Amino acid sequence: MLTLVGAGAVGVTLATHLAAAGKPIRLYARHKDQAGFAAAGGLTLDRPRRAALKAALPPLTDKLFDADTRYLVIATKFGALDALLAPLRDAPPTLTVVSTLNGVRALPLIRERLPHLQSTALTIMFNAQHSGVLHAQLTTKPAVILADGDAPLRALLAGTGLAVSHSQGEKACWGKLLINLANAIGALTQSTFRDLLSDPDLRAIFVATLDEAVDRIEAAKIDYKLPMPLPYRGYRALLKYGGGATWWLAQVKNGLDDGAYPSMVSDVRAGRTTEVRQLNGEIVALGERLNRPAPVNAALVQRVEALDLAKPAVLTPKVLRHALGL
Ligand SMILES: NC(=O)c1ccc[n+]([C@@H]2O[C@H](COP(=O)([O-])OP(=O)(O)OC[C@H]3O[C@@H](n4cnc5c(N)ncnc54)[C@H](OP(=O)(O)O)[C@@H]3O)[C@@H](O)[C@H]2O)c1
Fold it and tell me: Residue 143 and residue 167: Cα distance in Å, rounded?
């Protein structure tokens, strides 16, 4: 049995695939959500260029683990994680905690708080938006990367329509972190992925952000694997000189929809706290540890955190580039 925590964009996307394939899952959501869930009737996932995927509502639970729970898949934002981990101190050692969270902080936190449990990363390579109660919109292929070879978890994900690939250790989390550094640029300029990969000013900002991050990650001898068939230097050349090729590659490789945007864009629009500290902030922290500051990423963190979430200012790409001194 797998218990899925959180019925937002990622939670609904995973739950719909698993429930539609008849996999044994339960949904752990906040108590306040439960009346709305009953009214929604079931799970709906809109998909690009395909019919929506629908599934019956899986059983709801108000317990993070029951006697038969083998996997607890956490699909909340980082801010919710700490409170979720406290009751897991009493969980049996047969439970594996699976983090879908962006960034690289969630797993170390889970391991520090719950040393008696197994834990692993399910890196989310798709992009999805939460569009209503038990309703999400997928804007890419439904790809995920599972760290190492947890065979029973692999079997649970098989045949669900999720495209599952594998990664050694947490290399994929660091690679995904690099791609997610663009989210802050998107949030400040309210840009789509297409804008981020096509507009010359946004691309120049992304290259500078990545250069700084890759330098600090390599200096710290951290193993990372970009989620693409190119080493960083190749991707950088594509971003810098490739014209429309970067957007074309993203469409072919990830099936990105034209209007898709990073989830930090919707966080800012909805006035929610962002995960910028777990993304660009991770590079800033790494720079501090190495005594090698990361000013571009630091400025992005500072600017996102300074946004008035009641009425967030939107910068043009040119103004942001100029403000960052690039
Ligand atoms: N969306 C994407 O495309 C995407 C892609 C890759 C990775 N990720 C990562 O995946 C994680 C989840 O993102 P998301 O986009 O799915 O976020 P989201 O749409 O905001 O969903 C998070 C869900 O968790 C629920 N939640 C929070 N605390 C909870 C608790 N204690 N118990 C039960 N439910 C709780 C929230 O409920 P409330 O609404 O009531 O707060 C919300 O429904 C993040 O780390 C994100 O960076 C997202």
Answer: 13
- Cα–Cα distance, 319 to 43 (Å, whole number): 41
Tell me the two tokens of residue 313.
């200012």
Can you state the percent helix, strand and coil of the chain, rounding each to 5? 45, 15, 35
Ligand 1 lined by 135 (C-beta under 6 Å): no
- Pair 124, 229 in one domain: no
Ligand 1 pocket mutation, candidates 37, 76, 102, 183, criterion most atoms within 8 A of CB: 76
Minimal-distance CA residue to ligand 1 atom 4: 127
Q: Average pLDDT for residues 103-121, to the nearest whole number? A: 96
CB of 186 within 6 A of ligand 1: the answer is no
Reading the block at residue 52, the tokens are 């929506």
CATH number of the domain bearing residue 120: 3.40.50.720
Question: Per-residue pLDDT for 148 more than 80?
Answer: no
- Does residue 259 sit in the same domain as residue 112? no
- The predicted pLDDT at position 93 comes to 96
CATH code: domain of residue 218: 1.10.1040.10
Q: How many structural domains is the chain composed of? A: 2
Closest C-alpha residue for ligand 1 atom 34: 6
Check whether residue 179 and residue 162 sit in a common domain: no
Q: Is 139 in the pocket of ligand 1 (CB under 6 A)?
A: no
- Tell me the per-residue pLDDT of 24-41, one tens digit each, with 9 for 90 and over: 999 998 876 778 888 888
Range of the domain at 282: 173-323
Residues 281 and 305 in one domain: yes
Ligand 1 site-directed mutation target among 10, 64, 134, 264, most atoms within 8 Å of CB: 10
